[in-house]
Amino acid sequence: MIPAPETLVERACAATGLRDLGPDGWQEGLDRLVRAATSDLALDDPSAARLCATIHHRLTSRLRIEDWYADQAGEVPPIGAMVVIHGLPRTATTALQYLLACGPDFRFQRRWEISDPIPPPESGTDADDPRRLAAKARREVGAGGSVQHISDTDGPVDDNTILGLDFHNQELGLPLPSYTRWWRSSSLATTYAYHERVLRLLQTGRPPRRWLVKAPYHNFHLSDLAAHYPEARFIMAHRDPAAAFPSACSTVLTAQCNALPDQPPDPLDLGAFLLEHLVAGIERAMADRAVIGEHRFLDVTQKEMEADPLATADRIYEFLGLDLVPATRRAMADWAAGNRRGARGPHRYTAETYGFRPAQIRSAFRHYIDRFGIEMEDRARATPGVL
Length: 387
Prior knowledge:
Layout: H1 5-16, H2 27-40, H3 45-70, E1 81-87, H4 93-100, H5 111-114, H6 130-141, H7 160-165, H8 177-185, H9 189-203, E2 210-214, H10 222-228, E3 233-238, H11 241-259, H12 267-292, E4 297-301, H13 302-307, H14 309-320, H15 326-338, E5 348-349, H16 358-364, H17 366-372, E6 385-386
Parallel strand pairs: 1-2, 1-3, 3-4
Antiparallel strand pairs: 5-6
Helix pairs in contact: 1-3, 2-8, 11-12, 11-16
């Protein structure tokens, strides 16, 4: 059983000796998350304990962040710029972020620092930071696990941790449809304000201040994001939905099975929900994009990223008004050579496993396909697919 939100908050305050949880906006998300866990899940004691631990960590992190801010004698510098990668999941968004992260032009979140942000990392001590060394050791112990994601100790990660700190993350790691449906229709105005608050903290001792962030679920709230970051530029990744959708289903299924090993989700139920969810997100993104302004968006396909990553980088740098210097180009070339499709082993999946044929998936995404002239993938017609 999950305790009431007030109890969870009191436990976090007692554990830290702190009371200030920062700007309002997180309370409804916490309440909705607890309610969804009660209504959507049949949690056994170990699963309930894991979820409580996750919530506890988020609350104690908020308390420690505000304690850090209270100790600052002067103004914490604002961020310098924002570049946002988004699109359907499994469309090379991660590869794009890793490619751009090869040089010194962008600041990005690393898993080890965003999981434990206090104290903020320092440029001169990054390599020996105990948090980094612990993450590196965990990674080495866990080598040989999932091949579905590009991952590195010092590489970039999605924004989900920050959104989770504000209890406005989509939470697909658990089957919580009532929460996720609430989240996608809610405002994230205060969440993106808190997002900036965390990024400002992270950059204090570790520049640069031009941020590169990535998450497919930004699709749902581009208007809120653009309103908070009025100078932000967006890179939208594209791929045939008939190939991207079952790959995303496979990834989410794996995450949910890991979270609830004794209660694996039904693939057909998962497929029906994710189709509804991802179509809603891409429709919202197209509507918001029309309002935000086409000049702030650059479109990149997975096919062109795979065919010529350096040409893709050239196009992105030109869009952002940046110079791609030879050293960064060489680093990008080295990274691309070592991270070609299949470099981490095959990711096998079929659309039929999740209750759909490729033609049905494309029909659901017809507006998106027509709007961007998405090219169909032959391998999406094959069973099984391999990514």
